[in-house]
Specification:
alpha/beta, Spore Coat Polysaccharide Biosynthesis Protein SpsA, Chain A, 2 domains, eight-stranded mixed β-sheet, 8 strands, 16% strand, globular
Length: 333
């Protein structure tokens, strides 16, 4: 059989709740010349049975059922197993519009200088209900994306991405150190070797709910994102990337040593602390301690009194009191 035009890459871990509509949306694509690689990453629910059932009915599905190794290992495994020159990402809780593959493949064929293309997305809730967007859409052109990097903006929605397999493999695929922000690190590395952009159409329905990975690991994700942007600036300045060969990122206090200069740890802590002010999950976990350390170091206090009120609304009055006390103390000093 000839190789397909597209390899679809999906990793599943305990995804039975939303898996069926996610798979159905791929099988319903207008463009049909694809293989669908689905890794079950050691699920303990019905996900393996669902995948096996679909594979028995559609020969385009190539299931990989094995023990848990994590998302980054799963994505790198699929990258190496893919038979197509183009890879389309998909998550097990989202829904692709029927025209998604056709529109993105046409873009890549018309723009050989682009290695990655995403799309705008439509936010939906747990039950598929529409949700209001409260932020800007992703940048469209490569130049707009470079400008977004400079201000820490969004780049490409990972499950909406389609990319050239050889370009991603040439940069080492996904890096293990950037768990929960592996896509941002990849886009930042690729931005120096190819062009990236987005189609200004909502080709993906992106599901938002409390149990998703980005909600459960907000603090770790924001720390990793801050370090990924630092590594990008190191590469742009012609300096070696100290994160390139890491299996995991060190603690924030060790970043001065990793990057070889003073002030990096404090810079990352401040960036993350200011970003966590709006996250109910982070303010209930170790993100709160990071924010308090930031204040003890004399860091910026922008919006911190509003964060006190937010903590009360989030049902954390004791933490609200601790933050208010710290703010009053540092103001008096």
């Amino acid at each position: 059989m000839p190789n397909p035009a597209i390899s679809v890459a999906m990793s599943v871990y305990n995804g039975e709740r939303f898996l069926v509509p996610a798979i159905d949306s791929i099988l319903a694509q207008d463009f049909t010349d694809f293989e669908f690689l689905i890794v079950d990453d050691g699920s303990r629910d019905a996900s393996p049975a669902i995948i096996a059932d679909y594979a028995s009915r559609d020969c385009r599905i190539r299931p990989i059922l094995r023990e848990n190794r994590g998302l980054i290992a799963s994505l790198n495994e699929v990258l190496h197993a893919a038979r197509a020159p183009i890879v389309a990402r998909m998550d097990a809780d989202d829904i692709s519009r029927p025209s998604r593959f056709a529109r993105q493949l046409a873009f890549l064929e018309a723009h050989p200088d682009y290695g990655v293309v995403g799309s705008w997305s439509e936010d939906i809730g747990e039950d598929g209900e529409p949700m209001l967007r409260d932020g800007a859409d992703h940048p469209v052109t490569h130049d707009e994306l470079l400008a977004a990097i400079e201000i820490g903006g969004q780049l490409i929605c990972h499950p909406a991405a389609m990319y050239r397999r050889d370009v991603v493999l040439s940069q080492g695929g996904y890096h293990a150190a950037f768990r929960h922000c592996e896509d941002l690190d990849l886009w930042l590395r690729l931005a120096s070797v190819t062009r990236l952009g987005n189609i200004p159409e909502r080709l993906l329905r992106y599901r938002r709910y409390p149990g998703q990975v980005s909600s459960r690991h907000s603090t770790e994700q924001q720390i990793g994102s801050a370090v990924a942007r630092l590594a990008f600036r190191e590469r742009q300045a012609g300096r070696p990337d100290p994160t390139a060969d890491l299996d995991h990122l060190p603690a924030i206090d060790a970043l001065d040593t990793l990057f070889g200069r003073r002030g990096v740890s404090r810079q990352v802590r401040e960036e993350v602390a200011l970003g966590l002010r709006y996250s109910p999950v982070a303010l209930r976990d170790d993100g709160f301690d990071l924010l308090m350390t930031h204040l003890r170091e004399g860091g910026r206090r922008d919006g911190m009194w509003r964060t006190v009120a937010r903590l009360v609304r989030f049902g954390a009055p004791c933490r609200a009191l601790r933050l208010a006390t710290a703010l009053a103390t540092t103001a008096a000093a």
